[in-house]
Amino acid sequence: MGFFYSQFFVRPTYPTRSFQGETVLVTGANVGLGLEAARHIVRLGASRVILGVRNVEAGEAAKMEIETSTGRSGVCEVWKVDLASYTSVLAFGDRIAQIPRLDAVILNAALATRTFEFAEGYERTITVNVINTLLLALLILPSLKATRQKVPSVHPCLTFVVSEVHAWADTTEFESGRSDLLKALSDPIKAKMRGRYPMSKLLEVLLVQELAGRVRGSEVMIDMVNPGLCHSQLGREAGVGFMIMKIVLARSTEVGSRTLVHGVSMGLEGHGVYMTDGQLENTALSPFVRSKEGGEVREKLWDELSMILEGVRPGIMENAQ
Ligand SMILES: NC(=O)c1ccc[n+]([C@@H]2O[C@H](COP(=O)([O-])OP(=O)(O)OC[C@H]3O[C@@H](n4cnc5c(N)ncnc54)[C@H](OP(=O)(O)O)[C@@H]3O)[C@@H](O)[C@H]2O)c1
After folding, report:
1. 44-96 pLDDT, tens per residue?
2. d(CA 126, CA 39)
3. How far apart are CA 243 and CA 166, in angstroms?
4. pLDDT, tens digit (0-9, with 9 covering 90-100), for 104-130
5. Ligand 1 atom at shortest distance from the alpha carbon of 30
6. Yes or no: is domain 17-310 CATH 1.10.510.10?
7. Which of the following is catalytic: 201, 246, 274, 292?
């Protein structure tokens, strides 16, 4: 389905699946799609919802808002995680490893900026949206797998929030002959920051595909969702054109957040799949992602990511199986 058709005519269905008894983690849950997805999950009966946020005060405000609107208190917990920092992600992942069960995770936190800054030696969007999002996924996979073992009736889900703009990425930015693509994208002289957010989402799509290919879907279902263009804080630095496009086309944050809840409601059929409008739709992946060249870039990226993450936490890549 095309972008304009989806924005004008499709409303993802209102989530109704029960989360009774479940523990769910949502990152970037203080505002935007993450906050609304967390609100749905609390409303749908989850026992414990961890709001992973970089600003604890904003997280506490979100928690209060969820409690007031759902009438359910004692469910949400605010945990600090800054995806621009390896130390913070490792501490968060290690804390998650202590909890007795983890049923579903929505890796939603991301940023869109045109300002070049470094975080952990890579351009910040690459670090937050790609490297540390994957690091966090690898840190929490053992908890999801362990929940499958302990509670066989549960099929744990790991959902990544991606975007259709992955198809807008300028793939000529991948310098042929280079195997350190993330490093090359972090060159402050050459980085094309106008297209950086779409590029980060393309990298995420490729790496999630690779991860899902390595992890058994029967253990943990891994998928990715495109929420469509939605009102949120994202793009706060974008120009007037983007703001006008949002006014005309964007879904409400609540409507967009339904797609995140659908992401963590899939069974085995969702494994490795890209969802749009709350439906499985692998054919909506960009021609590049489905091409031979896309496959080659995916392999190089995975090798580079493995090298980076093994440097951050030796042995971590063993979790990707
Ligand atoms: N809105 C759309 O039209 C749209 C379309 C397609 C895909 N998406 C995807 O949807 C997801 C949610 O975006 P949104 O639209 O809800 O945007 P948003 O309102 O800007 O929310 C982004 C969330 O990510 C958090 N975040 C940013 N940098 C972080 C860091 N270093 N560490 C931890 N958390 C960090 C933000 O925290 P702070 O509040 O502290 O900044 C915020 O909670 C993103 O993955 C985005 O790519 C959005």
Report:
1. 999 999 999 999 999 999 999 999 999 999 999 999 999 999 999 999 999 99
2. 28
3. 19
4. 999 999 999 999 999 999 999 999 999
5. 43
6. no
7. 201
